[in-house]
Structure formats: structure tokens, C-alpha cells
Amino acid sequence: THTHTTPPMAAACELPTRTLALVHRLLPAACALRKHFIDYVGSEFCTAAAERDLFSPGFLDTTLVCRLPDAPAPPPASSRTQRCSILEIITHVIEALLSKSAHAPFRLQGPPQNVLALGYRFRRANEPSALGRSTAIQNYYPNTLVESLQGRDWCSVHRILGDALFFDLLCYHTILVQVPVQGCLAQLTGPPLFARLPYPSFETLVKRPHAGDGGERDGLSNHGEGNKRQRREEAAAGPAGSSVKRSKSKPASTIAAAPAPCPAHAPASVARPPPPSTLEPRPAPAPATAPLTALPYVPVEAATRTPQFFMLSTTFFCLACGGMGIFSVAKPMMGDVFGSSLPTIVTAAFASSYVMALSAGNLSGRIGWALFFDKFGPRTTFNMFTLGSIPIYLSVPWIVSSVVTDPSVLPLALFTGATVGAISFMGGTYALLPAYEASLFGATQVGAIHGRVLLASTVASLLGPTTLLALRSSAERDAVSKLVAQVPEAKFEAAFGDSTANLNVLLETKTVTISKLLALLPPDTPDPTPFIYDTTFYALAGLASVAALAQFLVRPVRRELFVKPTK
Prior knowledge:
By secondary structure, the protein is mainly alpha-helical. The protein contains 20 helices and 7 strands. The strands form 2 sheets. A 5-stranded mixed sheet has the order 1-2-5-6-7.
């Protein structure tokens, strides 16, 4: 009989000696979770945990942890604040593990190098999110370790350690928990232990039954006549007989690296060592991708009653109002704002070229923002549209004031760039809204849903230009009223043949204009024409703020509203 040295954690763990010896060979620095707690938060927590009955019996002594060799320095023990739920911490851990695998060398890329991240990958476009409120990762294969880590015992661990230390525990440690099968452990986190070992090395670590003595012999080596006779019998039986022999001689203690459900603090099922062929390194098969129309979706009748539908319609309406309002006043606005300050540059031909530049911005927005959408996702893109429109619209009155005080080409260039950028936001909204709707409601009925959202575009095309032209007319009336107040009554009647009491009628017939009133006033009277669009752009900034608020309120659709497509 071969003897072995008892690992240092045997005194604190209620596990078989053979299992501890195997863990010690694989993870020499492994220790019980109780010792890990004492190292991080002190020994006083043990008494408090026992008094409050926070953990299941034996959980702290049979759960083993080992810090990874390449792990960074742990957070300070004082950082034990808890602001996130345990599911949010697990989500952040999986995102960090996937990011680490994505930046690995080419030869190491493939499945995630941690059992907790198995079955997860970064979310592609038009896919629902996998965990919590995360929009970054997607689950394509069941991994019940996530459910195991949400049990009562691990929630207590999270409350004791806090967010930072619990994140460090899951991300940079290998964790083994005891399962209901005697002498067996299951791996919750860390690099897969079986994947690192070829089958012969595994045979030298685990005790195997002997054919000669009819029982089991302690030790980790395969010496003795029983093992020699067994290997000769396996070699004589050939490949088929070898597989039968190995299926009959299962090791007494194993470490399970496959995901399994957990009723209390450990998975319920145990994965036995796979045959030698499954332990050979080989590339993982690519997950089969179903067509988008085969994924669950929200029916159009249910989608139109969700808050997400109304928030998207509000966002679409506000952004479309802004773009169409600029289009409706583009040519006269260029002449009114810059015609008096830069008469040699801003001509009728230049104003027509400006309208063509707005059309080019609309087209480039549909193409350019689509690339941004593919890289950063729908939420970030539409936040850019809504939040980016606010400073653009608020900057236009300042640009107009600058060109009046100091006529130059720079304000003209800034004005053109700002308005073209706002138009590109509208074009991007029209192009990318169907993809945004598909990411929320599924792709099966996105055409019908988008057709209903387009009603907001119809309303915007009717109300947007009308409202903004009304604001311009109101600002023009106010400017005329202020100028009329400076003109003597007799002089006004001599110039226009009527009194100021009929000013509204004179304005409607274009008898009284700002330019005619300035001819009756001193030459140093400021021309209010460039400033009559200030209220228009302030109104557009208000619409962009409403769109930003509506976009902020968009959340993932409730899962119970999704249905599976019929064959």
C-alpha cells in the first residue's frame, strides 16, 4: 500500500482523504472557504455567522478555493460595500471572463477558459440579453452554475464580502464544492481541471480498483501486480474492451467540471471522468445559429401595448420633427441669418447648395451611423442621437450672435456642420429603428411593428414644419412690433397708408416688413432678422430633451410577452 502526505486543508475540511490528496495535487494552494474568510474579513465573522445560521452545515469546511496564479492583487479588506445584487455581480464576472478570452493569443481563442463562462458569448446584434440588465452577453447553452451561485449560502457570502471581494472571489479563484455523492466535488469557477490533463495523467492521480485483491487500495500511483494485470487485459481486449473496462472501473473520487443544478449549496448531479477520447484537446464545435425568424418574438398586438413601443414612437417623433423642421426652413434661414452679414458668400446659389448638403447629411447618416450601430449596439446609438441633438440645437443661437457681432466664415461653417449633423441623426433614426425594434420585440413581426411606429413619422412630417414655421412667424411678429414702437405714428401712416392699429393686416399682406421698417429708423438700429430663428432652435432642443428622456426609459421587454414561433 502506498501512503501519501495529508494536504494542509484536511484538518479543516470534512472530505475524504483521497479527494483532498487529488485536489492537493491539482491545486496545491487550495484551502477551505472558512480560512479564506478569516484571511479577508477576520475571525470574528465565524461567530456571527454561526449565531445567525447564515450557512448550511459543513458549507464553509467542504467548499475549497484556490487563487489563480496570474490573478491581480485582491481588493483591500475594507472594501466590503454591497450595492449590486448577486446576479449583477455574476454578470460582471462573466463579462470580464469573456473579455479575457477574447484578448487571448490566437491559439488560445475558442471556448472561455473558465467553467463559469461556458455557454456564454458576447451578444450579437438583434439578440435578447442573457442575464439581468446586461446587454453585452448572450447564453447559447445551459450553464446551471449561475443558478447554483444564487443559492442561500452564496448570497450570505456576498453579504459578508461585499461587491469587490465577491467579484474577486468568483473571477480570480478556482472554487470546488461538495456534491451529494460521497467523495466527489464539483467545480464552480476557474479553468476546467479536466481540460488541462491527458487521460494517463488522470489515471496516476485517482485510485483505481485492482483485479487481484477484490477491493480498493489507498494511494495515488498505479503500481502493483493488480494494475499490471488489468492493463494487460485491457490491451488484449482491444479498443472496445478497453472502453468496457474503464466504464466498469470508475474512480472513487472525482472532480466534476460540468455545470449541474444545485439545491442547497452544491450541484445535484456529478459528472464522472469522460473516456480518454473526450479528454484529448480538440476545438469546440461552433454553436448552431437559428434564423432570426425562429427565435421567440412579441406579437404585434402585444407589442403595441408595451411602454417600449410608446417610448420608441416618442423618440422617433421628436427626432423626425427636428430634422424635418430644419429642412422646411433651410433655404430662407440661410439667407435671413447670413445674408446681411456675408452677402458676397451667402447667395441664392449658396442657399441651394446648403439644402443639398443637408440631403447628403441625411444619406451619410443612414450609412455611417449603421456602422456605429453594429459596433456599439442600439441603446448607445440612440443615446447619441438624442443627447447629441441637444447641444447642437442650443449652439445655433450662439453661432448666429457670433456672426452678427463679427462677420466671418467660421460661424457659417459651424452652423452648416451643426445642422448637417442634426439631419444625419434623423437619417440614422430612419435607417436603424427597425433593427432597434427587432432587438426589443424579436425579428418575426418587426415589419408590422415598424409600420405602426411609422405613424409617428407621419405625424412629425405634418406637425413639425407647421409648428416651427409658426414659431418663426411669431418671432417675426414680435420683432416687427418692437420696431414699430420706435417709429412715429405719423411717419408710419405716411409710409404704409394705414395706422399701427391694423398692423396684423399689414403683416399678412406683406405691406410691413422688417426691412421697410429699418428704412424708417436710424442707420445704427440693429437688424433682428438673424435672431428670429432662436425660438425655433430652442424648441428643437426641447424636443430632443423629450426624446432623450423617452430613450432613457426604454427597457427590455418582459419575457412573458415572448412567444415561440410555430413550425
